[in-house]
Amino acid sequence: MKYEGYKIGPVIRDIRKDKGLLIEEVAAKTGISVSTLGQVEQGGRNLSMKNLYMLMEVYETDANSLLAIECTPDSLDSRLKRLPADKQDYLKKTFDFMIEQALKSA
């Protein structure tokens, strides 16, 4: 999958605005500079994994929404939703732990 900032940036901006947040508020909550956030929203800068994860937390949304990825029947999200709730929960917690470890080492 190719990162297409010109498509993703406006989606990220729309999510921020839908949440009623100013870019300065997001910068304060994430530690990402206003300049970097502006460049990401304009499609001129790629979004790092670390910044993606921080935006997911602030916007209370998933990566697919931020990256404008549509759910297809064979997507990871669709496949996960077909599992029993306890297995979904286990895998989500495992993945969350893995992301936390990756952020610590970034």
Give a summary of the structure in a few sentences.
GO terms for molecular function: DNA binding; DNA-binding transcription factor activity. This protein is mainly α and 106 residues long.
Give average pLDDT, whole number.
90
Instruction: Tell me the span between the first and last alpha carbons.
Output: 22 Å
The CATH class of the largest domain turns out to be: Mainly Alpha
For the record, the count of structural domains works out to 2
Count of alpha/pi helices: 7
Structural class: mainly alpha
CATH superfamily of the largest domain: lambda repressor-like DNA-binding domains
C-alpha-based Rg, rounded = 15 Å
The total beta strand count reads: 0
**Considering DSSP H and I runs of 4 or more, what fraction of the residues is helical?**
55-70%
CATH fold naming of the largest domain: 434 Repressor (Amino-terminal Domain)
Oligomeric state of shown chains: single chain
Largest sheet: none
Q: Stretches where pLDDT falls below 50 for ≥5 residues? A: none
What would you say this structure looks like, in words?
It comes from Dorea formicigenerans. Keywords: DNA-binding. This is XRE family transcriptional regulator. The protein is mainly α and 106 residues long. It folds into two domains: 69 residues, 434 Repressor (Amino-terminal Domain) (Orthogonal Bundle); 36 residues. The chain has seven helices and no strands. The longest helix has 21 residues. The radius of gyration is 15 Å and the shape is globular. The model has no long low-confidence stretch (mean pLDDT 90).
